[in-house]
Amino acid sequence: MTEHAALLDIAREAVAKATEIVRSRPSFSVSAKGDRDLVTDVDTAVEDALRAFLAAETPEIGILGEERGRSGDGGGRWWALDPIDGTANFARGIPLCGISLALVDGEHSTVAAITLPYLGVTYTAARGEGAFANGNRVGASTATEMSDAMIAVGDFAIGELAEEKNRARLTLLSDLGARAQKIRMLGTAAIDLAWVADGKLDAALILSNNPWDTMAGVLLVREAGGAVVDRDGSEHTVGSAATIAVGAGLRKEIVDALDRAYGVVR
């Protein structure tokens, strides 16, 4: 078994443990951690459990989690964990949420697992091995016409400079809404990216790049044959400003729309 295969088995086991925790907690507490930003005690319970599991299984690899920050020195390798991506959905009983776990090596992810605990699907990928949903290979969209495209757009910005950031988002929504088949705002980057990999969405435009939100989904999309770029069209890395995932046939159309929204002239 290759190292990536062994680490993928660990990632798969980790998100399975997370699913058990999420589904075993019929009640939970919700608190605010920022401007319109929520955390539940299930988020922290999942992160604590997976930190302990990953530290025991891979002590040589660091961990960055959304709720507890960074720990360990992995020498450039670290797990990026979002214990519940889509907490606002989860807190309201909306079943669109996921647990996202990626192994990041340098600037890119090499192992990924995203599980959707209420939809019964686990997406997995290892670099060079393809992307899978419950063990079945998946592929990104081959659409080439914007009129055929279903596009997910990430949440509006909150906090500092939100008004300025959202002006560009509104311009982008107006542009895409006039030409795409449908626009969706699902409230979870994990699902946005997993569904681009699975061909359910033709593109996902996440205008931020928190590694715990995006790095697992980025690998899934690439292994499924899709493209993932930064807002300016350059190849996506862990340090990118945005995460733009798209079936290869619509890459130029999407980047052009982003340029118009942000007033970029090339």
From TrEMBL:
Record keyword S-adenosyl-L-methionine present: no
Pfam family membership, one: Inositol_P
Gene3D superfamilies (alphabetical): 3.40.190.80, Fructose-1,6-Bisphosphatase, subunit A, domain 1
UniProt signal peptide: none
The protein's name: Inositol monophosphatase
Keyword terms: Hydrolase, Magnesium, Metal-binding
Upper classification of the organism: Bacteria, Bacillati, Actinomycetota, Actinomycetes, Pseudonocardiales
Native organism: Amycolatopsis bullii
Xref: SUPFAM superfamilies: Carbohydrate phosphatase
PROSITE patterns listed in its UniProt record: IMP_1
InterPro entries: Inositol_monoP_metal-BS (IPR020583), Inositol_monophosphatase-like (IPR000760)
Domain of life, source organism: Bacteria
